[in-house]
């Protein structure tokens, strides 16, 4: 099931939550966080202000994963979090989604499901690709994070806008150089 262009919606949700809560231009209001989850494949009928209050510290925690400077640091961070978030993997079939795996125990609240899913999907990304696929946007004035599970895996920017802006600036800088 590809909803957002990510193989696993927890990867996209993790980056979007981190950006909403921790980046300079982010919006961490209740409605904004609800929209982030909705856009990344979570059912948000049970989203409440308490959900948002739990997701803000979670997003700040996940930011350190995107900023990890070594594979060892990223692994240690994830393993610490995996030990803290109770899991109970099970196969589910609801809302005509087809069979899929839930990581959190049944009947936990939405924030717990988000913690479990983002952690497991980030762990899978790390096992497949190491830390080459996560990072902070390479644009000079941007502090947003990205995760890349595309086949090529060459992403260095949070968005096409940042990539284009940086490329145009580099082009102009080259043209200014005396020949
Ligand atoms: Zn489900
Ligand atoms: Zn950016």
- What oligomerization state is this entry in? single chain
State the helical fraction: 40-55%
Q: What class do helices, strands and sheet pairing give? A: mainly alpha
Bound molecules: zinc ion
Kindly provide the radius of gyration, computed on alpha-carbon positions and rounded to a whole number of angstroms. 18 Å
Distance between the termini: 52 Å
Strand content: 5-15%
Q: What string gives the helices and strands in order?
A: HHHHEEHEEH
Number of helices, where a helix is a run of at least 4 consecutive DSSP H or I residues: 6
Average pLDDT figure: 91
Strand order of the largest sheet: 1-2
Biggest β-sheet: count, sense, barrel?
Answer: 2 strands, antiparallel
Poorly predicted ranges: 1-5
Number of E-type strands: 4
Identify the overall geometry: globular
Name a few traits of the molecule.
two-stranded antiparallel ribbon, 6 helices, 4 strands, 7% strand, single chain, binds zinc ion, 179 residues, globular, disordered N terminus, mainly alpha
Architecture overview:
The model is unreliable at 1-5 (pLDDT under 50). Strands 1-2 form a two-stranded antiparallel ribbon. Strands 3-4 form a two-stranded antiparallel sheet. The chain is mainly α and 179 residues long. The chain is globular. A hairpin with an 8-residue loop joins strand 3 (134-136) and strand 4. It has six helices and four strands. Helix 4 runs antiparallel to helix 5 (110-129). It binds zinc ion (ZN) (2 copies). Residues 92, 94, 97, 100, 102 line the site of one zinc ion.
């Amino acid at each position: 099931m590809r909803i957002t262009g990510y193989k696993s919606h927890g990867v996209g949700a993790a980056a979007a939550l981190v950006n909403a809560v921790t980046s300079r231009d982010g919006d961490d209001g209740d409605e904004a966080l609800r929209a982030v989850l909705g856009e990344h494949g979570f059912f948000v009928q049970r989203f409440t202000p308490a959900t948002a209050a739990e997701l803000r510290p979670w997003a700040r925690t996940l930011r350190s994963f995107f900023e990890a400077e070594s594979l060892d640091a990223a692994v240690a961070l994830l393993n610490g979090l995996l030990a803290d978030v109770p899991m109970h993997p099970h196969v589910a079939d609801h809302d005509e989604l087809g069979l899929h795996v839930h990581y959190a125990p049944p009947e936990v609240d939405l924030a717990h499901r988000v913690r479990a899913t983002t952690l497991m999907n980030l762990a899978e990304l790390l096992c497949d690709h190491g830390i080459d696929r996560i990072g902070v946007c390479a644009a000079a004035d941007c502090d947003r994070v990205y995760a890349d599970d595309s086949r090529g895996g060459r992403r260095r920017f949070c968005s096409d806008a940042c990539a284009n802006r940086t490329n145009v600036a580099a082009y102009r800088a080259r043209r200014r150089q005396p020949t």
